[in-house]
Amino acid sequence: MSNNKVAIFGGTFDPPHLGHLILSEQIKNYFGLDKIIFMPAGRPPHKRNQCVSSDQDRLKMVELAVEDNPFFEVSDWEIRAEGYSYTARTLKEFVPTIAAKEVFFIIGADSLADIFDWHKPEYLLANGKFIVFKRPGYDLDKILAKEKYQAYLDNLKLYQGISIDLSSSFIRDQIKKNNSIKYLSRDNVVAYIDRKKLYR
Ligand SMILES: Nc1ncnc2c1ncn2[C@@H]1O[C@H](COP(=O)(O)OP(=O)(O)OP(=O)(O)O)[C@@H](O)[C@H]1O
Ligand SMILES: O=C(O)c1ccc[n+]([C@@H]2O[C@H](COP(=O)([O-])O)[C@@H](O)[C@H]2O)c1
């Protein structure tokens, strides 16, 4: 298979859910991607004070979530890397190792809204290519109309197709309340969470 267009989908994935999967499949179709690499963040820089499940649990759950999709892969590169999982670093060090004509980062509208608080945002936006998808509660057009984004619009491709209002925090919250999370992620991920008693 040719790898002309590859996208990296970085996330905390604590846990991965159907929102992530539905979006990825739609984006793959819409942009004609050859492959999407799911990249669980080792130490998510903006979640320093939040309790995050172990790297190995999140990696395993992402592997389970994508195992039946030949277009989806998982990389443990950020988990293996020392220090915080800065996307600027992934762009500089990991992206050149991918044999592809074009490499994109997939991010949600909420991530785009605070990307100027990320590590080296100008470097990232000037040198990376992004596929940004809408997320309920965020107005993509309004975010992009802001002055600070204007120099980088060529590197921002939008996907305004379907998305669902689901988050990992909602799933964690449901588990804490002893509610079922059936249908919110793939069955194998739900079974893994049950078996390992995560988020209780
Ligand atoms: N339902 C969704 N619709 C659109 N984008 C999403 C959705 N869920 C997650 N994303 C995006 O996917 C990426 C990875 O998300 P992440 O793993 O943090 O999940 P999350 O549901 O946002 O988690 P949490 O609730 O813990 O913040 C982020 O760029 C986020 O914007
Ligand atoms: O580089 C940064 O400073 C930075 C700050 C916040 C988030 N990110 C990345 O954005 C992706 C989505 O993050 P999250 O926490 O919403 O899952 C994930 O790959 C993070 O490593 C990166």
Automatic annotation (TrEMBL):
Signal peptide: none annotated. Coiled coil: none annotated. Keywords: ATP-binding, NAD, Nucleotide-binding, Nucleotidyltransferase, Pyridine nucleotide biosynthesis, Transferase. It comes from the Bacteria. One of its GO terms (molecular function) is nicotinate-nucleotide adenylyltransferase activity. Pathway: Cofactor biosynthesis; NAD(+) biosynthesis; deamido-NAD(+) from nicotinate D-ribonucleotide: step 1/1. The keyword Transferase applies. It catalyses: nicotinate beta-D-ribonucleotide + ATP + H(+) = deamido-NAD(+) + diphosphate. CDD domains: NMNAT. InterPro entries: Cyt_trans-like (IPR004821), NadD/NMNAT (IPR005248), Rossmann-like_a/b/a_fold (IPR014729). One of its GO terms (biological process) is NAD+ biosynthetic process. Its EC number is 2.7.7.18. Gene3D superfamilies: HUPs. Belongs to the NadD family. Catalyzes the reversible adenylation of nicotinate mononucleotide (NaMN) to nicotinic acid adenine dinucleotide (NaAD). This is Probable nicotinate-nucleotide adenylyltransferase. The gene is nadD.
